[in-house]
Design a protein that fits this description.
171 residues; mainly alpha; Tetracycline Repressor, domain 2; 9 helices; elongated
Length: 171
């Protein structure tokens, strides 16, 4: 999967073949098909694996009700995920920003993130925000932007300071 992620990021989805992925991974082409039905299946798994990492730390007890402690936990753990595997996330962002990937999976991103937006909307409703849905969408977009900017320039991006500001302003 790491080889596919790197090649998809470098050559695009359509410019990458299963054969290229197998060669880069140092395995037989047939072995790729033992794990994935086709290239679409591999791409889906790459995208879903990235989303699942963040899902695992959002609403930690999975009860559909976000507390302030869970909110802060999500921020802390999300930033740790970025720092611990920055190479993966850099390639992941490059991949998901490619036009062909957006065309294939853009609708699925919305479907996968909708439950999180709903939980955040409820969180902001309970905090009496004027427009909780907008606040939830803004928060999600801001987290995406912070993550993208950090993985593209980690040496110059003040991640810990920004984390503190996010927690203060959005908690």
């Amino acid at each position: 999967m790491n080889s596919a992620l790197e090649l998809f990021s470098d050559y695009g989805y359509y410019g990458t073949s299963i054969n290229m992925i197998a060669q880069k991974a140092g395995i037989a082409k047939g072995l790729v098909y033992s794990y994935f039905e086709n290239k679409d299946d591999l791409l889906k798994e790459l995208i879903y694996s990235g989303i699942r990492e963040f899902e695992n730390v959002f609403d930690a007890d999975k009860d559909g009700f976000l507390t302030e402690d869970e909110f802060e936990f999500f921020i802390d753990e999300s930033f740790k995920l970025l720092q611990e595997n920055i190479s993966f996330w850099r390639l992941y962002f490059l991949l998901v920003m490619k036009k062909e990937v957006i065309e294939i999976f853009g609708h699925k991103f919305i479907e996968l993130t909708a439950p999180h937006i709903n939980i955040l909307t409820d969180y902001y409703k309970r905090k009496n925000h004027e427009n909780p849905e907008t606040e939830a969408v803004l928060f999600g977009a801001m987290i995406d932007g912070v993550a993208f900017n950090y993985v593209m320039n980690p040496e110059k991006f003040p991640l810990n300071e920004i984390k503190s500001v996010i927690i203060k302003r959005f908690k």
